[in-house]
Amino acid sequence: MLLQDLRYALRTLVTQKAFAVVVVVCLGLGIGVNATIFSGADGVLIQPFPYAEPHRLVVMNATNREADVDWAGFSYLDLRDWRAQSTRLSSIATTSGRSLTLSDGGDPVRYRGVAVSWDLFPMLGITPMAGRVFGPADDAVGAPDVVLLSEEVWRLRYQNDPAAIGRRVLINSKPREIIGVMPKGFKFPEIAQLWVPATPLVHAQPRDNRSQQVFARLADGAPVEQADEEARAIAARLAAAFPATHKGWSAWVHDLRDELIPTDVSLVIWLMMGAATLVLIIACSNVANLLLARATVQRREISVRAALGAGRARIIRQLLTESVVFGVISVPLGLALAYAGTQLLTAAMPPDEIPYYIQWRIDWRSVSYAVVVAVVTAVVFGLVPAFQATGGTLHDELKEGTRGNSGTRSLARNALVVAQVALAIVSLVGAALFVRTFVNLDDYEVGFDPAPLMTFRTYLPADVYSGPDAVTNRVRDLVERLEGLPGVEAVFASGMVPLAGGGGGARCT
Predict the structure, then answer these.
(1) Cα–Cα distance for residue pair 382/372, rounded to 1 Å
(2) Are 138 and 146 in contact (CB under 8 A)?
(3) Highest mean pLDDT: which range of 7-11, 217-221, 355-359, 363-367
(4) Could you tell me the sign of the dihedral formed by the alpha carbons of 120, 122, 124, 127, in that order?
(5) From the centroid of its chain, how far is CA 20?
(6) Cβ density class 342-364: b for 16+ within 10 Å, e for less
(7) pLDDT for residue 48 is more than 90
(8) How many Cβ atoms from other residues are within 10 Å of residue 133's Cβ?
(9) Could you tell me which of 414, 386, 417, 381 has the C-alpha nearest to residue 299?
(10) Beta bridge mates, 196
(11) Confidence class for position 10, pLDDT limits 50, 70, 90
(12) Is the pLDDT of residue 454 over 90?
């Protein structure tokens, strides 16, 4: 019987082309918008991070309520004590952002770099695509200087040449050996392009230099709550041991996703998912209304079939089969629109500002979601027309010229129209609020006209500019040279770029 229903539904598509096209386009638009937003929600909020046992990865931050500090890192000396005392964390790794200029005979290029402890990559379960990662011998005081490249740097600067492994280059004017290339797309913790060992750079920093961001792995069977309690206890012991630098300081441990995906990002994505769902409901309401109108035309045909012995359940199943066929046929159109939508989203995002783990693509999960949405919506919104078409009195429907229960069907259609209009108004108001917010951000008064202003950053390594006035003289020289350029009216140097931050104040290494 199912095959008969399918054949009948396909015949309907052929004989009623205009009706079929309208239904497929409506459902395709709804499915496409939903699949597009779902690809982002799935990639950012649902799928686990691409690390080994990501549910056991946590982040540890320092806090100081007395100094009103909600988030801070840790010092190298503190972490050395932490590793010795912690039992709830099986591995503790650190990162700290660096600006790394690579020079190898060609034009020097400044990359976003990270100084990491050697155990970071084993903790994440990441292996290089070429060469090797850091080992304990690389992350030690006096060890030979080495560097890891991202796949992007290896591809663009060295054209994937295997001979680049083992090559010596200058990183911030200091010779380092390239020992490996990380996997394609990997830029941990956010958009890093080069990695260097941390210990040679930070081992001499004082205990109150809290510049190290800490990632850790929970011990087997240890929940986050126990690790958090232990962190507070260890922080209290350190505060008692070093009151001059640790008074009021504590620590807390939380899930990796809470650190990498801010709450406002999650909120925006779920709001977008809600808006996309409204679009799908509007589209499906429109389709349900079309099916109701079509059922009114088919009312007499259905009554004849019932008179010939077809039960109500049998007729409802056939009508639902038609709805499901319409939904399934809408999937390719929806996926095509979703693919175009994801490409537009990707093109609109600044590639050097979005963390590498925030991504969206149409994969098998998005396709499965689209198919499920198509089938479920077809069944749900096909039920109303099916029950309306098979309701009423058979005797009245067979009478010539009778109106049957058209009043009831008109009420259903009117209700669907009201629902569509209400949801459309909600969607329009929400879209208008989003647009107004972005316009307000663009027109925000900052107290000066930023249009004619340009900024750039300089990086002065401490081992090169070690003299008492070396940095000051170099900055003065840069300012004087820039003032002499045509079209430049004024130049100033600062450790802080207005509205953009920067300038930690530490001597760069």
Answers:
(1) 15
(2) yes
(3) 217-221
(4) positive
(5) 37
(6) beeeeeeeeeeeebbbbbbebee
(7) no
(8) 20
(9) 386
(10) 115
(11) confident
(12) no
Mean pLDDT rounded to a whole number for the chain = 84
pLDDT at 17 over 90: no
b vs e for 13-40, b when ≥16 Cβ sit within 10 Å of the residue's Cβ? beeeeebbeebbebbbbbbbbbbbbbbb
For 149, phi then psi, to 5°, come to -105, 150
Query: Residue 387, SS3?
Result: helix
* DSSP assigned state of 172: T
Q: Is the CB of residue 16 less than 8 Å from the CB of residue 301? A: no
pLDDT category, 308, cuts 50, 70, 90? low
| Residue 505 clears pLDDT 70, i.e. is over it | no
Q: Which amino acid does the sequence have at 486?
A: P
The residue with tokens 């003299």 is: 467
Residues 6+ apart with CB under 8 A from 247: 66, 239
What is the separation of C-alpha 188 from the centre of its chain, rounded to a whole number of angstroms? 14
Task: Please state, in angstroms and rounded to a whole number, the distance separating the CA atoms of residues 393 and 375.
Answer: 30
Q: What is the 3-state secondary structure (H, E, C) of 250-267?
A: EEEEEEHHHHHCCHHHHH
Beta strand pairing status for 89-103 and 213-218? antiparallel
Number of C-beta neighbours around residue 340 at 10 A:
13
Between 62-71, 174-183, 406-415, the lowest mean confidence (pLDDT) is in 406-415
pTM score of the predicted model: 0.79
Cα–Cα distance, 439 to 73 (Å, whole number)? 35
Cβ-contact 73, 290 below 8 angstroms:
no
pLDDT class of 199 with cuts at 50, 70, 90? very high
Separation of first and last alpha carbons in the chain? 76
Cβ proximity of 253 and 60 under 8 Å:
yes
Q: Using an 8 Å Cβ cutoff, are 255 and 58 in contact?
A: yes
**CB of 446 within 8 A of CB of 326?**
no
**What does the chain come to in residues?**
509
Looking at the DSSP bridge assignments, the partners of residue 61 are 252
Lowest-pLDDT range of 78-92, 163-177, 331-345, 446-460: 446-460
Q: Do the Cβ atoms of 335 and 370 come closer than 8 Å? A: yes
Q: Which residues pair with 171 in a beta bridge?
A: 102, 174
pLDDT at residue 392 in the model: 56
Q: What are phi and psi of 177, to 5 degrees?
A: -100, 130
